[in-house]
């Protein structure tokens, strides 16, 4: 009797398990392969053959998907919505679809991209700040966990071909060498094809590029021209991929993520594009805001009762800019405008190709104007934008003097500068809002215009969608369109719940009640919380347009920050602070912010500041090595994984065979916008520390190098702390041949996307002394190179 009961229980248990697996099969990805439809006997004669059929997991008319994500572009820039930057491609999408005027980013690039691709809040997926300053706190680790699968991973498993082009910036910095590991590269996150750059920015003329998991050289030309530009190259490559996808797998829909480096610094564009804007901004940023504000209202893009927010007291008025400086400031804005329009034009080339292939009618195009607002990191206007990242204060006269030595205003926008515009222009292109990029407290940093078109599925309507939404909502929207239930397990990893909500309900009804009731924002303690029409925010310890180390930063505490409160139903632009009038509401919102922060791993408040130049630059991501031995010359080693020669005390020892008429680079780190190089010129040993173009420290040996086998040493010793002065000694065969002091060393990095080379300088050349001879490869032989970090005394 007991045996029969036991067997019965096993039977019911087995049936229940099988039924659960059957019902929930779609909750585990990837799908299991289709079983054979043939039956094998002992011989072919006793076997039956039938070709297996892979089941379709998508609706028969599943749309193609194209996401276009611009970089560092504020809401008051595009002509589509009242700005003065010509954006015909954005207008094309808007004029065939719908637009959103209360759509939001995180205020910073890596966080926004991680949120967009996963549908989760940025700190919940470890991206509380950019990957270059990641740290050990869970919310700020710089690594998207496999428990939060990307859109690409899920769509690929359901039958899409997937590809990404352009800026990535979601791979741990120390893992971007050619040897991986590749788990956290685009191809490890579901993109079957990737072409672009892994870092936060790149020179548009000399980028370090990756195709899938291999570093590759960029073409010599792009866009059908006799020159090269990265935005054009990214469009060229996307067009080719689309053609091949149509030829090889016409039955499969595609998902393309096209994210150029524009209009992020450095602002690089050909002169003819910048010249289209000559004279258009001569009256400055304050006047720009007035004009755009009126146009935004005239277009109905913002409500008629919107208030134009004032300029911050710490930001310079255009009227206070000296006359001798204004041509420089105007040209910086003309270049940015041309750069942004050029990127929009190349996005149009991708759409043109989709149309030529006959796929436009059933392609959803999601065009997001900016992963955050326009960047104020150019501070007072700069020829080398990494100065701000390293918290190095400068005066505008230094930039203009250095620029004049390079050739004057015509050099701006070209390969000899890493220019960025004055923060005043970033503020202007954020009209009508307060703030810029890096400010989660204000919509100038987070509010991104978005256009969505899908001729087959969305009827054009020019009425802006005013529902409050966020980049985390894109994934849920795509999944609803494709009828994809959120899987419980992907590639063996149990999945975190989505934070996003679908926006499909807005496609047909611009007046529908918004479904996103709460959203928190926090970038480096510039923070805010939205809830049912209210918004509370705290500016945080710094303003991104104020250079150097903020006063009192070491004593700053989030517990003593001043908070502001806005009723967004009555105050579109955060112009009227109600904190004093509504103290109970403010306390309620502050408590909600802490609740959301705890839920989303956003603790400690300000955790993203840990590894910056403001606090602990020694903890910024870097190779775990403190000693390297290169048995032969190496090239193309990413700066993020290379020895930090301009940051820490070190000794470089090289075995070199010096020929007659010796010339060439012995080693070079980074590029023309900032870096360290040691080279031989006409037999003399030379060292140069290029501090972001505004200060160059040069040391030259007293005598020529002896011919034959020579041991060369470059000893660099910090006098005090990271970012301070550095003593440098050149030695040949143990004897000192030159000494000098670098007044200001580097705190974080020289560039985001350059490399370390031995025996050549393959990036933009570090030194002007061999700029015209680049890559200036050494004409002798280099044997072993050893680099060792020196211990502190």
From TrEMBL:
List the Pfam families hit by this protein, alphabetically. Answer: Sulfatase
Q: According to the lineage, what is the superkingdom?
A: Bacteria
What keywords is this UniProt entry annotated with?
Calcium, Hydrolase, Metal-binding
The record's listing under PROSITE patterns reads: SULFATASE_1
Q: Where is the Sulfatase N-terminal domain?
A: 63-480
* Matches recorded under Gene3D superfamilies: 3.30.1120.10, Alkaline Phosphatase, subunit A
Q: Which InterPro entries match?
A: Alkaline_phosphatase_core_sf, Sulfatase, Sulfatase_CS, Sulfatase_N
Q: What is this protein called?
A: Arylsulfatase
Transmembrane portions of the chain: none
The molecular function terms in GO held by this entry are: hydrolase activity; metal ion binding
User: What family does the database annotate?
Assistant: Belongs to the sulfatase family.
